[in-house]
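In response to reviewer comment 3 from the previous cycle, which asked for concrete evidence that the modeling workflow produces usable outputs, we include below a single protein chain processed end to end. The sequence was submitted unchanged, and the resulting structure tokens are shown without manual editing.
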Amino acid sequence: MQFDEIFPTYLVKDINLKLAEKLLPLCNRYTDETKTNCLHIENFPSTLYDRDLERKVMDEPEVKEAFDIIIESYLKPFLNHRGINLPQPLKPFGFFSSMKKHAYLRKHCHLDSLFAGIIYLEVGKEVPPLILYDPKPMRSFINWPLLPNNTKDTPLLVIPPQQGLVLLWDSYLEHEVPQKLNDEPRKTFVFNL
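The workflow returned the following structure tokens.
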């Protein structure tokens, strides 16, 4: 696990193939069953906004175990690294999604939580990256010259997806996923804490 310093905050990155493999069958089952799309975007079956499936997903033993791992292995070390106490009580929430051809995610953030994250469960070739944006308001007006390998002053961070990749960040960071132009899989478990 690593803590990457980005913008005025940090990003947790790790590879956990075991966790991804454990959640993938649930993702396949629920995204085949759902009638909703992630953030109402076509070709993006998701358990988000499917109230019946949201409850079922959160009751799954594998999802409960995943949240135990996320909190103990990622969130607590992340907060400790930053010198922050664990907020109480946490309200974990997660959903599965399967991005199909022509789907995308507009720039957004997760205002209903303190932290957000994603676990890539299955990733095909040439699947679009996750793009995180610098939250500093002056970024829209000032273009500073950048030093090489300087993630603190870059306007955005592009993260290529990888099976088993776990990411955790402050929920206020805006992020997006460009349009997917192929039929390769991009299956994820997105979570809020």
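The first strand starts at residue 2 and ends at 6. We consider this sufficient to address the reviewer's concern, and the full set will be provided in the supplementary archive.
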